[in-house]
Design a protein that fits this description.
The protein is of the alpha/beta class and 363 residues long. Helices cover 46% and strands 17% of the residues. The structure holds adenosine-5'-diphosphate.
Length: 363
Amino acid sequence: GKGIAVFTSGGDSQGMNAAVRAVVRMGIYLGCKVFFIREGYQGMVDGGENIIEANWSSVSCIIHKGGTIIGSARCADFREKEGRLKAAKNLVQKGITNLVVIGGDGSLTGADLFRQEWGSLLDELLGRNEITAEQREKYKVLQIAGLVGSIDNDFCGTDMTIGTDSALHRIIEAVDAIVSTAYSHQRTFIMEVMGRHCGYLALVAALTSEADYVFIPEDPADVNWPEVLCDKLVQERSVGQRLNIIIVSEGAIDRNGKPITAELIKKVVVENLNQDTRITVLGHVQRGGNPSAFDRVLGCRMGAEAVMALMEANEHTKPCVISLEGNQAVRLPLMECVQQTKAVAQAMEDKNWELAVTLRGKS
Ligand code: ADP
């Protein structure tokens, strides 16, 4: 059977384990040899114990766990050709010519580059007598399927990334908890949530928690936002509300591109309204904990589809990313989605928010 390896890379997210599990079991079911690569690209470069064959039971009891049991890492070595040569040699030695990469746009970019270079990497290894001519021929094509694990939902091409739904659950629980204590003391709370270029978590959390105000990067606030915000808070209190909740995405900005931080909002509220105001930064709590049912199902479906895509691929097939479109798992060209995602981030940097939203919407 074919050799498939699965690894998780970049930032972790809930539901990655479900995806790993599905890759292993679908692969075994279809007669493949499936390997784990531990610690992302670092494990691929280092080889040895980092690349081990998986069996059916090695993925038992992981579907409910957050994070990734096979570890994730950022890896400088893989950015260098020498690192990728080592990685290629390690894969050839194990007979691995199919990779399922679970990560963000950086990890997927690395995988695409690796696939493009694969032939020349093998030539170089052959030239150095590190692989045989037989191996060069037998393992001449590397197939790639990508899955997007990210709590931010910041990837173009998929309706939901693996981990987003769980992060939302975590945020909602936190807001609900804050609401009860805020009520008792008639306080105003500013809650900072993750999302550097993408306000999805903040926006959906605000909608579903009845927050009074939300700041997101895609819709920068007018420069007079302090006035507008204070009017809104006063109005809510005047109709009998005992608390206010303001949700701010970590990437929130105003029309001039100036960051709107939780501290800044607090200063505005305290100076203008003299309300008892507190900040809660949710931080990595959002990435932790058990995956939701949705993320478990998403991970399972994406993982299974990735294996099917690899099995059906031939040497002309381009790397794909498995995406959720409506309720369907679909295969999209990996690099086009990555490039679109990067274009959105660039448009945001350029303060061209309309373009950013249009580009994201198009995908
Ligand atoms: P994410 O996958 O979450 O976007 P990073 O951008 O940190 O996270 O990428 C994770 C890893 O992927 C990097 O540490 C590096 O090993 C690899 N990688 C990212 N971009 C490239 C690239 N252009 N070339 C080679 N490897 C890359």
